[in-house]
Amino acid sequence: MRQAFRTALVTGASSGIGESFARELAARGADLVVVARRADRLDALARELVERYRVAVEVIAADLTRSADRDEVEHRLKNEPVELLVNNAGYGAFGAFAEIPIGDQLREVELNVNALMRLTHAALPGMLARGRGGVLNVASMSGFAPSPGSAAYGATKAYVASFSESLHAEVIGQGVHVTALCPGFTRTEDGHEPHPLWLRREDVARAGLDAVEAGRALCVPGVQYKAVMPALKVLPRPLLRAAANRLWKQAADSQ
């Protein structure tokens, strides 16, 4: 059964896809809690959404890699529940694994995996008790294929996709929807020329919200990436590794 969400908490909401989630949810009439590190950008976004859509917007300035900040968001989810949690905050350290400082890559795991798990664990029991709710976890197409140049990032997104699909199976039929959103290359800022490989962040956010409302386990936005998904399951792994390497190089050249 499709359900619209009346309240939502969005992480990483100050820019990129997270900002697009917040705008789309406000346009759909949802009251919001927006979370990110940059309080100034959150405050400006909140003022705009309140004025334009007449929804309530609460701002929580938090770095989810810091335990004290993460605890604040967990406490908010447990004690003032929302109907939808959008785990969008993420970080990618790009380059050769051996050349990237290990601290940067561990930060990816802390934000992309640990924080996502903790916030989901804070929100999900209340949703199940009420028989209503949704969790939208932002994974990536890189979670389904080798990701040269972003090995740790791809691994974290593979975790998010698998974790989300498992939770979807656990809670199905209980009024709670868990969805993994798996975009390909996405323009997170405005002002770039169109390119067939790149998705618009507004389209990605809208597709993800439609999917979690409809109770789908997986959402792959964009016809070009929907076409790729079946091939990822059947291509020989050596061929897939070579193709993934070419794709990342093309994407880097197109920026």
| Model regions low in confidence, pLDDT < 50 over at least 5 residues | none
CATH superfamily: NAD(P)-binding Rossmann-like Domain
Helix proportion: 40-55%
**Helix-strand makeup class:** alpha/beta
- The name CATH uses for the topology is Rossmann fold
Order the strands across the largest sheet as they lie in space: 3-2-1-4-5-6-9
Number of β-strand runs: 9
What is the C-level CATH assignment? Alpha Beta
| Largest β-sheet summary | 7 strands, parallel
Query: Rough shape?
Result: globular
Word description of this protein:
By secondary structure, this protein is an alpha/beta fold. It has a single domain, classed as NAD(P)-binding Rossmann-like Domain (Rossmann fold, 3-Layer(aba) Sandwich), CATH 3.40.50. It has 8 helices and 9 strands. The protein has helices at 16-27, 39-53, 67-79, 102-130, 151-171, 201-214, 223-234, 237-254; strands at residues 7-11, 31-36, 57-61, 84-87, 133-138, 176-181, 186-187, 199-200, 218-219. The strands form 2 sheets. A 7-stranded parallel sheet has the order 3-2-1-4-5-6-9, with helices on both faces. The protein has a two-stranded parallel sheet with strand order 7-8. Strand 4 (84-87), helix 4 and strand 5 form a beta-alpha-beta unit. The radius of gyration is 18 Å and the shape is globular. The model has no long low-confidence stretch (mean pLDDT 93).
